[in-house]
Amino acid sequence: MEPRITSPATPDVVKAINLLYKAAHSAGVPAATLELVHLRASQINGCGPCLDAGARSAKQRGETDERLFAVAAWRETPYFTEAERAALDLAESATRLADRGDAVPDPIWEAAAKQFTEPELAAIVLWIAVTNFFNRINVTTRQQAPQNWG
């Protein structure tokens, strides 16, 4: 499958994304939690480049293979903290908005609110949105994960 366009992001878009990235990563949410949220949303959306980049980034930050391999089955594994589980549940609901009438039910939000401050929750929601933004661009334009990573 060939990409439909070679570069889906213009320089102005890249600047805007960098500002959103900085905002999401400056609110005090552990980087590992944001990486897991990114991976889970990207798995749901089937975004190869985001999964590849996210897994590589997480590994560079010291993430374990066990946790990376288990993100899709986070409910059935013992590898994640309560805070990470709350963030992953929120990521799933916010990514699958059309799957139910109440897209992000109160119990899911409340579980996340018990684990994170309001600025941290805002950052997680922003990061979920940014991830979904990238997923939609990459999937729509058929971007591929790199094949040559040295």
TrEMBL record:
InterPro entries: AhpD-like, AhpD_core, CMD-like. Gene3D superfamilies: AhpD-like. Residues 11-92 form the Carboxymuconolactone decarboxylase-like domain. One of its GO terms (molecular function) is peroxiredoxin activity. Pfam families: CMD (PF02627). This is Alkyl hydroperoxide reductase AhpD. The lineage of its organism: Bacteria, Bacillati, Actinomycetota, Actinomycetes, Micromonosporales.
